[in-house]
Sequence to fold (735 residues):
Amino acid sequence: MPLLPALVFLTTLNPQTVQIAGRQVPAVPSPPAETPSQEFTGWSGWGPLVGKTGVAGLYPIVSEAILKTPLAVDAVDWHVKVAFFSKADTIESDGSGVSRSHRFFFFDPQVNETLSALARLPGEVAAATGGKVRLIVDTTMEDEPARDTFAKNGRPFGPAWREAYFGPRINGGRYEAEDRVYRGPYPSVILLLPGRADYGMAEVNGSPVAMAPAGGGYTDVTLFQAWVATAMARSKALGYGGRLGSEVPWKELASGDPPSTADLERIKAGVGTPGEPLASPFQIQESYLAPGGQVEILTDTERGPVLRLSETGTIRTGGVALPLPDGGLSTESAGVLTFWFRSNSKDPLAVMASDGEKSAAYSIGRDRMSAENGGLAELDVPTDGMWHKVGIDLKKGGLTKVTRLFIGPTPASRNTTKVTLNNPVFDLDDFALEAEGATAILPPPTADVNSPDPESRLLGIGAADAATIARLLGDPDANVRLSAAMQLETKAEAANAPALLAAANGIDPIVARSAVRAYARLDLPEKRGELIKLLKFGVTGMAKSEAAMALAQSKDPKLAGDIMILLANRSLEVRQGAADALAILPGREPGIIRTAFLRQEDPGIKLAVTKATDGSEETQAGKLRWSAVNEPSDLVRLWSAIRLIPSTIPQARTDGYAVVRDESLMVRTLLVEWMGANPNEAHRPSLRLALTDRSPIVRAAAVEALKKQPGGAKDEELKSVANDPDARVRAALGT
Fold:
């Protein structure tokens, strides 16, 4: 998980390239192919599709001159935290037994596109703000996949996921660690990953967190838009109504600090300084090809020159707009668009037509990438590597004239993972308009665990018995195997044990994880021994960490040594799982073993261990006393204090309460709020000290916390804030 502070790792090598994260990447984006080649337009297979080629993609172009926009003398520093995952694994479950795995990953071209966009972002922001903002980008490149599970029709990586990931990794207040690395507060936090995700805004430790889809050809725009969204969120939080522009104080927005008294007054009054819209740093260029797509004319031994459409990305992108006559393609006399089609791809191709108002879309073959197919009619066309004639009844679809015709990924599958690792390739020939010959529409798949159609088997899992589901653990379809394993987490029977152990030792990590969970619920005398084998010798890291968690449920302290071996695992995810498992085990020895995880670099692991560390045990208390003062992560210092305050060791308690004077405003505030939520007469001295805090947010929290202590707040305690000038403190006092 290398940390890459921007403006340090960004070095100009020549006018065409920059170096970022050890890679040479383009300094400016390459312009698209705006017009097709003569070979494409002159192809003999177009039939009635003769004329001007349509628009399939809008490409953002930023010039070198824009990127060299000079910064103003008084330009403000704006810190941006970026987490970049080049892999993402998600599971979509519909609640009825059907689960679908979506696995996204980037190859070098997509990684380079994303890094190039990151390198250009400071210049784009400088141009958009008239040189008033100097962007400082701190980028963490994660080696392991981002993982999440979401419900049908939902989106992964939403607020809860962002809280869990970013919470220990960004600070909500200022704290200068020994390594002098800046960790917050951040006015902007951006998540970059492949595929689809929750595009809404979240807030973590006071920082707005946006998501920017990456690697699909538009990363410059999505990254810039994500920054603008976070800046608007800061503007709203400080009472400017989301406005940005020359009249809005960039310095105040860039600070990352919580709202001041003046901000609150502005919010209450509902007024703010009008802001100008930000100038766009991009020029938009049209192309007949969508990003990630490729077309060529090649000679087929059977049919001669044919049109080949392929996708080059690691997620489903691409597509091409087809030529149409001036005024559009009339379907009055012949309404069936026919063409010859060949592919052996398991990923479907869509044909989408529009007259400017109405549209019709068709999938050639089953659209299996999503639980919802977007309403497309699915044409009964085999993808067996042989030529087949396809007919689409555009007139029946409600189109008497077609003004746009596009072929590419179906709407439901765009920006999703491919069914197989091979790039989809589709060959087409001899377009024509005919009066009849429409291809039959596939009926919806029916639930049948014995069907040769994997979609039917998948739909049948929810109602199947345990024996049938266990058999499907060996199914050739990945989603069928996954759904079977997840169903057995609640349905497994003792007779399923051999199939579960085989799946637990398989190479698919998410199937193995569910198989371990299912096996762990069985009441078998050999279960403990089998789980220990999986912990030590499992094929996948997820099987090992899940076995550790299953073993830890027994709360046997003797297991700590076995689980400890995962501390040396290369996978951060496995080490995190081991830390979570050790946190369950009671007793002194597991606690001392847990503290070894505090030496891990990852703050997420440190936080999990800290929350489980015993502040009343001498060795563990010593670790907590050190981390309460020195740990760079706000949340780890906070939880160190929370674990020390109830300690039976007097000095440990003293050191825990001392955190009420931590450098970070967030830590001080949350610790005071914790004392309010967990009343104890011993808290009073520290809460009285908090009443003198320089921040009105802490003073207000201290007033509220004192009210919750045994006997409530005493009049003499509140004298120091009786005439506090801040409205938040007065509101807490009730005056």
